[in-house]
């Protein structure tokens, strides 16, 4: 494929902003040219100099005044719950029964799964999210619908069929044997096909028998490179229920650890009510926590202790998740906004660089994908978003008073949402263009 280029100011991490040199971690390199070939970034350099070396006629998309960022990564989201966002009034367990399970039951119809998958992918791209760890439903065809649409856009996605063999409506349960068999078939069909990656997805300990969790652990071991995703320590009533269901285990996390479900590429959603032993286990095993602030606030689950998780003597990998449909926005900018407030309520301050890290470069590192995505650097897949600091009249007015680009980004994280995403490039193709007349979405040719 012929080369193309994107011109603008590039946001780049020189180091982990949670580390010692936090203040210098995020840099803005002005007027760069990002050259892309065959979906990969081949060079990034000062625009004038690089332009002179490009073959004549190379298409260049120029975004003066915009910030080019790696596409956002959402570490925890449920696509079947798109139709029940904002279902209000309950805490986790009642919310699951009243709203979530009925919505997921509608996915017994493959046509419904196809329709929602199409809408969901478009909303992700509109929000600037190019990679997500996605829960499907118990139905294998819900995974096929999702990955098929992801393939059409060329996005790198992580997804899996929910496993649940108890404490759920009968039409939403599998068995330890059928869940394993169906998951294995989905791994064979999708894992490593193009950019698609599979996540073995036991919903959470209360909906899985010990037999099912152990089978999931064995399946994970048999398929290196696949992910595990589940929920952990989200809500106090849920945690008490896990203690009742698994009296031999020392903690909620111990249920997963005992079943062989902790380790690199294991993603635990929420982790709001964690003990020191739990954090230490995540550090020791290389497990990842998905911080889902809009969801934890919406369901009243509690306040995630980010800086305790990241404690320097035993840092735990953390990435940001929307957790729709308990979460309230597709936008990682809005999720950063709420993460900032949750940190403040815990007596800490989340810097702009730290917030961006959790949804881009740091998330890629946590998910063992940093050789492929998460940075605008040569060799990475060209998943790039164009952030518009003047996207709305209010943003335009406010941004004019910013002293530097870090402040402009901080304002974007406060006032911005999908309107601030001018364009989304997936593997070098602009699959979403906010200002394109007609359909703003286009599959790659
Ligand atoms: N715990 C088990 N299932 C779910 C779910 O769908 N959403 C949330 N937020 N927590 C869960
Ligand atoms: Zn969830």
| Residue share in helix | 25-40%
What overall form do the CA principal axes indicate? Answer: globular
Number of helices: 16
Helix and strand content put the structural class at alpha/beta
Low-confidence stretches: none
Mean pLDDT comes to 98
Sheet with the most strands, sense and barrel status = 9 strands, parallel
**Bound small-molecule species:** guanine, zinc ion
Per DSSP E runs of 2 or more residues, the count of β-strands stands at 16
Using only C-alpha atoms, the radius of gyration works out to 21 Å
Report strand %: 15-25%
The end-to-end distance, rounded to whole angstroms, is 11 Å
Q: Explain this structure to me?
A:
The chain is of the alpha/beta class and 445 residues long. Helix content is 37%, strand content 22%. The strands form two sheets. Strands 5, 6, 7, 8, 9, 10, 11, 12 and 13 form a nine-stranded parallel β-sheet that branches. The protein has a seven-stranded mixed β-sheet with strand order 3-2-1-4-14-15-16. α3 packs across α4, α5 runs parallel beside α6 (210-222) and α15 (393-399) packs antiparallel against α16 (405-415). Residues 78, 92, 96, 100, 203-204, 231, 234, 295, 323, 326 line the site of guanine (GUN).
């Amino acid at each position: 494929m012929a080369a193309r280029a994107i011109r603008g100011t590039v946001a780049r991490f020189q180091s982990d902003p949670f580390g010692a040199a936090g203040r210098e971690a995020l840099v803005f390199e002005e007027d760069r040219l990002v050259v892309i070939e065959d979906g990969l970034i081949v060079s990034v350099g000062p625009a004038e100099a690089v332009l002179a070396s490009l073959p004549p006629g190379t298409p260049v998309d120029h975004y003066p005044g915009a910030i080019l960022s790696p596409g956002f990564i959402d570490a925890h989201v449920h696509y079947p719950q798109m139709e029940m966002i904002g279902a209000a009034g309950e805490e986790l367990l009642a919310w699951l029964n009243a709203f979530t399970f009925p919505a997921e039951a509608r996915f017994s119809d493959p046509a419904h799964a196809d329709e929602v998958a199409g809408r969901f992918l478009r909303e992700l791209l509109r929000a600037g999210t190019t990679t997500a760890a996605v829960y499907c439903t118990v139905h294998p065809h819900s995974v096929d619908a999702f990955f098929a649409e992801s393939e059409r856009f060329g996005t790198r996605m992580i997804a899996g069929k929910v496993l649940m063999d108890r404490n759920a409506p009968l039409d939403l349960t599998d068995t330890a044997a059928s869940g394993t068999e169906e998951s294995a078939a989905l791994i064979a069909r999708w894992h490593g096909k193009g950019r698609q990656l599979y996540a073995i997805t036991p919903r959470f300990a209360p909906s899985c028998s010990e037999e099912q969790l152990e089978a999931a652990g064995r399946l994970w071991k048999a398929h290196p490179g696949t992910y595990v995703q589940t929920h952990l320590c989200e809500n106090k009533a849920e945690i008490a229920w896990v203690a009742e269901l698994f009296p031999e285990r020392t903690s909620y996390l111990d249920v997963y650890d005992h079943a062989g479900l902790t380790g690199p590429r294991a993603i635990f959603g929420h982790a709001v009510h964690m003990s020191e032993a739990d954090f230490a286990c995540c550090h020791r095993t290389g497990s990842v926590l998905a911080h889902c602030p809009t969801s934890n606030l919406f369901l009243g689950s509690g306040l995630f202790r980010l800086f305790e998780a990241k404690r320097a003597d035993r840092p735990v990998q953390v990435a940001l998740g929307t957790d729709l449909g308990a979460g309230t926005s597709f936008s990682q900018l809005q999720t950063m906004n709420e993460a900032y407030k949750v940190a403040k309520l815990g007596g800490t301050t989340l810097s702009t660089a730290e917030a961006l890290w959790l949804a881009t470069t740091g998330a890629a590192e946590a998910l063992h994908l940093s050789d492929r995505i998460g940075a605008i650097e040569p060799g990475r897949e060209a998943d790039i978003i164009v952030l518009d600091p003047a996207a709305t009249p209010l943003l335009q007015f406010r941004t004019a008073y910013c002293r530097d680009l870090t402040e402009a980004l901080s304002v974007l994280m406060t006032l911005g949402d999908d309107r601030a995403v001018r364009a989304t490039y997936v593997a070098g193709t602009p699959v979403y263009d906010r200002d394109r007349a007609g359909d703003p979405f286009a599959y790659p040719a």
